[in-house]
Amino acid sequence: MIRKTWAIAKKNIRIYYLKGPVLIFGILFPTFLFLAFAIGRNVPAESLVPGLIGMALFFTASATTPAILPFETRTRTLERLLVAPLTLSTLIGGDVLSALLYGLFLSAIPLAISFGVLGAAFAQPAALVAAILLSSLCYALMGTLLSSPPTDEPSSIMTLSNLVRLPLIFFSGVFVPVAQMPQWGQWLSRISPLTYTTELLRAGIGQEVQIGAWSCAVALVGFSAAFWLIALSLHRRNMSRRLAL
Amino acid sequence: MSPVIEVEGLTMRYGARLAVDHVSFEVSAGEVFGFLGPNGAGKTTTQRMLPGVLPPSEGRAMVLGRNMVSNPVAAKAAIGVVPEIANPYLDMTGWQNMSLAGELYGMPKARIRSRTEELLRQFELWGRRDDLAKRYSKGMKQRLILAMSLIHEPRMLFLDEPTAGLDVESRRMIHGQVKDRAARGTTVFYTTHNIEEANVLCDRVGIICKGKLVALDTPEALKSTLASSQSVEVAFDEAVDLVALEVFEEVTHGEKHGDKLRLYTATPGELIQHVVSFAQERDVEILSVNTLGPSLEEVFLSLSSGERSDQSDDGGRS
Fold this sequence. Notes:
The complex is a heterodimer of chains A (245) and B (318). Chain A is mainly α and 245 residues long. Chain A has helices spanning 2-16, 20-38, 45-61, 65-74, 78-82, 88-116, 125-146, 154-170, 183-189, 193-204, 213-243. In chain A, helix 3 packs antiparallel against helix 6 (88-116) and helix 7 runs antiparallel to helix 10 (193-204). Chain B has 2 domains: 3-217, Rossmann fold (3-Layer(aba) Sandwich), CATH 3.40.50.300; 224-317, Alpha-Beta Plaits, CATH 3.30.70. In chain B, the strands form 3 sheets. Chain B has a 6-stranded mixed beta sheet with strand order 6-7-8-3-9-10, with helices on both faces. The two termini of chain B are 28 Å apart. The relative contact order of chain B is 0.13. Residues 307-318 of chain B have low confidence and may be disordered.
């Protein structure tokens, strides 16, 4: 099963990492969004770090999975995968693995900027590692869930994906730490997985946090499990409609 | 021969529409089974349910002794499938597509390499193995898809319209491969709307119409069900009026086809004797005489329309 999952992930890496929608919504869009927030404002450099890394993880890891199934439906390659001796978990697992690696690989850039240029400190390395790994997994799975509507139009899924992702960044402690948000904002922030990423990252670099590191890790695991189970169920239900497109 | 495909009451509903309506049949080991039907008859839906791609709404499908509804993964490892509309990955080379197929079947790396080389050579793609599949012609892509489906040496092949829209060379190559695999004992489930293809390749054919299996037999047995479509086609060395031959009581009707006269009859043997006597009496020479049976196409049209067709534009030689 691991070999088959890796075979699918390898195929995705070859084909989808450089697709236009993945590059635009996974890299360019969050980069310019972050620059628009950071440039020209009197914000201390170290307070930008959790937002920078968090946004990178959030957008990159959730960028590839929404594109894969609509592309496979459109290019008529999906049925070849479905006739192979794979379970749906293996098939979706391969997509998740490739998205997870994409998130990990690309988050290395903001990590290097944060620690090399912005002078962030490794206060709790375990929390940092957990934040990066668990968040990449969580957003890769979120992307899989977003790709469940049966369509052969990647742009439709990317639009849906942005409709969900964009509002989340405004109440997840990316631009303003959760502790400094109004009460209603703090309540709202608890339903966003991105909140737990930024809080865990803050813990990792030794900043003040509102939610403990363990709670953040458990929340990210919980979101991941929920995304996985719901995504599998929806994909199973929608696969025949997808084939009929 | 023991059945390797056992289908019982297979049904697929899309909402209120019955796409496949309680279809039942068996396919024996080593058989080339043709699955025929007009567009929208339920062929592809059936073809997708058998290898476990689509779960049926009702019924049972056993392939190689495995239940394709409850345990499809194990049987999928022993079958090869060419879906109706399927592409290789266009942004990957022929070699990479083959490797991916092998990896999905859990084959060891060395075996994938040797099988890839063997199949790419067999399908005349070896010289283009490092080209992206997007640079292949339609025929080459289809050959690559077939090669991918064969990489794990399946005991059974499901082919859905594998030659649709292909050039003659690719079509012949695919037909050759099907015959070759069948000769080596591979069971082939061949879905097509090309009747002549089924006639030439298949041991038995099933005809599906509006979701129901309306016929299941050998091509010749199906043709014999339309006895009244038999005819005698005769050519003389000089012009003979069709009406002069239509007077024989065995003739139901006649048609002129170029320099030949085609006389439809249920008793071609007796009619030939009359025609020979006629030629002797009129002192005309018979240049050729052939008996024509109904074509599989006529059977198909007859079953599709629910009526028997007594007329034919092109009969098969019998």
